[in-house]
Automatic annotation (TrEMBL), chain A:
Keywords: ATP-binding, Cell membrane, Membrane, Nucleotide-binding, Transport
UniProt protein name: ATP-binding cassette domain-containing protein
Subcellular location: Cell inner membrane
Lineage, highest ranks first: Bacteria, Pseudomonadati, Pseudomonadota, Alphaproteobacteria, Hyphomicrobiales
Entries under InterPro entries matching the protein: AAA+_ATPase (IPR003593), ABC_Ni/Peptide_Import (IPR050388), ABC_transporter-like_ATP-bd (IPR003439), Oligopep_ABC_C (IPR013563), P-loop_NTPase (IPR027417)
GO terms, molecular function: ATP binding
Organism: Hoeflea alexandrii
Span of domain ABC transporter: 8-258
Family to which this protein belongs: Belongs to the ABC transporter superfamily.
CDD domains in the cross-refs: ABC_NikE_OppD_transporters (cd03257)
SUPFAM superfamilies: P-loop containing nucleoside triphosphate hydrolases
Record membrane topology: Peripheral membrane protein
Keyword ATP-binding set for record: yes
From TrEMBL, chain B:
Family per record: Belongs to the ABC transporter superfamily.
Topology in the lipid bilayer: Peripheral membrane protein
Species this chain originates from: Hoeflea alexandrii
Domain ABC transporter: 6-246
Subcellular location: Cell inner membrane
Pfam families reported for this sequence: ABC_tran, oligo_HPY
Chief localisation class: membrane
Record keyword Methyltransferase present: no
UniProt keyword rRNA-binding, yes or no: no
MF (Gene Ontology): ATP binding
Keywords: ATP-binding, Nucleotide-binding, Transport
UniProt cross-references to CDD domains, sorted A to Z: ABC_NikE_OppD_transporters
Protein name in the entry: ATP-binding cassette domain-containing protein
């Protein structure tokens, strides 16, 4: 078996504050194989976004954060890397797509300049012309027909859907091994969101990019991911292939979460508790059917 | 047959003039019956919020007429009109004053609309909080000390405080977690019944609409393209845009996926 692209083992995270120490991750373990699409799904405050930030090495720079356990990226322990080495990984070996594309692009620079910056991270000597050519090629892959106009524009001159595609194109421009997508498309209209996810799916398949997909939207997760981890209050409560988890959720929290989603086929609003002591039940693991 | 509580008659709104004019709403007509939940669905730029704002009287229509209980509403609303039609917004943190306690925010609504004797109002505030499922002593708390779901309950309580008849709900649950959303939607359903309220529910979330609305109006680019009761509209959407909208919703069960693909059949692949 090959080395997983991302292997998180017993990760803990706590913050030191005025009121003492608060632990927010109580030992989570997850892995993403090369080319695999893995979703981490949970509600706000469950710890899904901080997990992404630790993988990117962003929380390590925070003085109040206490991180335990290990994060292996392509077999390398991230904790052993210094700040510069970690910085070198970001934007090259791993990249991230954020929820709101319009606010994650810099409003005072044209898309072309921002693309040039991104490509320079992998190849510091790339000329502007070569960068633009490469940018146009990858924009074409995300179905941006008018690459020249888009590259010449400022982010606020483009629609949310176009900005999101620009973000996806930038994130994949340096052929990263791992893409972290934190609620991509949540800020977009449903029809645009559906297209964006389709494009993203096509692209990561073609480029064989591993994806850690962070979302609260179960529908989106079902359509995008190969495997799912359900996170609740800093603990993984259920994990398994997407189909198995969606067709036969076992953990009380996963069941409640699924039941709470209003159905397109009707049936009314379900009567479920916001919280229940059952949600603290131990981890449920579905067999890795069809996985080597 | 009783008269509709709210009627829009060829209502249009244009922002700007000449070549820069934006036709945000174009000749919108529909009637809302007392006690129903009419959903207005559409994507950004569809004009759904423009229509909501005109119903609320935030700005008057450029042309056309809005009638409440059969009487045309004036461009500048009287206190009585503002009492009758209330709003619950998407983000309760920004719609509640952070420097005021929950109790003071609710009390203000009672004071402005002169509801109850002034000695009674503190009790009314407590009763309102209990009606939306919060403890009465939350009145002393600041909005920042509440969770998102609790804050949205407060916003609902405030909309009810002045004995409103129509509540315009503008994406009331889209900022909430799904478990919390289910509870808040349940509460809204229950209040509609006990208080004989009429809802105008503005949202982009068709799964929510399917389960809470009695009728649905679909908006696209400033026009109403379809209006029908919920069951019929989902069973047999007439307009291609409605089909496209429904078939883009991410779903969790196989039955839903089947419904979606049956609607998507025959739609052309389109990208922006």
């Amino acid at each position: 078996m090959s080395t997983p692209t991302l292997d998180i083992r017993n990760l803990t995270l706590g913050f030191k504050g005025y009121t003492g120490f608060t632990e927010v991750l109580h030992g989570i373990s997850l892995s993403v194989e090369p080319g695999e699409r893995v979703a981490l799904v949970g509600e706000s405050g469950s710890g899904k976004s901080v997990t992404a930030r630790i993988v990117l090495g962003l929380l390590q720079e925070l003085r109040t954060a206490r991180i335990g356990g290990s994060v292996l990226f392509e077999g390398r322990e991230l904790d052993g890397l210094n700040k510069r080495e970690r910085h070198a990984l970001r934007g090259k070996a791993m990249s991230m797509i954020f929820q709101d594309p319009t606010s994650s692009l810099n409003p005072v620079f044209r898309i072309s300049d921002q693309f040039h910056d991104v490509l320079r991270r992998a190849d510091p000597r790339i000329t502007r012309d070569a960068a633009l050519e490469r940018a146009a090629a990858i924009l074409a892959e995300v179905s941006v027909r008018d690459a020249e106009r888009v590259l010449n524009a400022f982010p606020f001159q483009l629609s949310g859907g176009l900005n999101q595609r620009v973000m996806i194109a930038m994130a994949l421009a340096n052929e990263p091994a791992l893409l972290i997508a934190d609620e991509p498309g949540t800020a977009l209209d449903v029809t645009v969101q559906a297209q964006t996810l389709q494009l993203m799916r096509k692209l990561v398949e073609e480029h064989h990019t591993a994806v850690l997909f962070i979302s609260h939207n179960l529908g989106v997760v079902r359509e995008f991911a190969d495997r799912v981890y359900v996170i609740y209050k800093g603990r993984i409560v259920e994990q398994g292939p997407t189909r198995a988890v969606f067709e036969g959720p076992r953990h009380p929290y996963t069941r409640a979460l699924m039941a709470a989603v209003p159905r397109l086929t009707g049936g009314g609003i379900p009567d479920i508790d916001e919280d229940s002591p059952d949600f603290g039940a131990p981890l449920e693991t579905h067999d890795a059917e069809g996985r080597a | 047959m009783t008269a509709p509580i709210l009627e829009l008659d060829a209502v249009s709104k244009t922002f700007g003039t000449g070549a820069d004019a934006v036709h945000a709403a174009q000749s919108i007509s529909f009637a809302v019956n007392r006690g129903e939940c009419l959903a207005i669905v559409g994507e950004s730029g569809s004009g759904k919020s423009t229509v909501a704002n005109m119903i609320l009287g935030i700005y008057p229509p450029s042309s056309g007429e809005i009638r409440l209980n059969g009487t045309a509403l004036p461009a500048s609303r009287k206190l009585e009109h503002r009492r009758a039609i209330q709003l619950v917004q998407q983000n309760p943190l920004s719609s509640l004053n952070p420097k005021r306690s929950i109790g003071a925010s609710l009390r203000l609504a009672l004071d402005v609309h002169d509801i109850g004797a002034s000695a009674e109002r503190a009790n009314l505030v407590g009763a309102l909080l209990e009606e939306v499922g919060l403890p009465a002593d939350f009145a002393r708390r600041s909005p920042t000390a509440l969770s998102g779901g609790q804050r949205q309950r407060v916003a609902i309580a405030r909309a009810l405080a002045c004995q409103s008849e129509i509540v315009v709900l503008d994406e009331p649950t889209s900022a909430l977690d799904v478990l919390v959303q289910a509870r808040v939607l349940k509460l809204l359903n229950q209040l509609r019944e006990t208080r004989d309220l009429t809802f105008v529910f503005i949202t982009h979330d068709l799964s929510v609409v399917r389960n809470i609305a009695t009728r649905i109006a679909v908006f696209e680019k400033g026009r109403m393209v379809e209006l029908g009761d919920t069951e019929t509209l989902f069973a047999n959407p007439a307009h291609p845009y409605t089909r496209r909208l429904i078939s883009a919703v991410p779903v969790v069960t196989l039955e839903e996926a089947a419904l979606r693909s049956s609607l998507a059949a025959g739609l052309e692949e389109t990208t922006e």
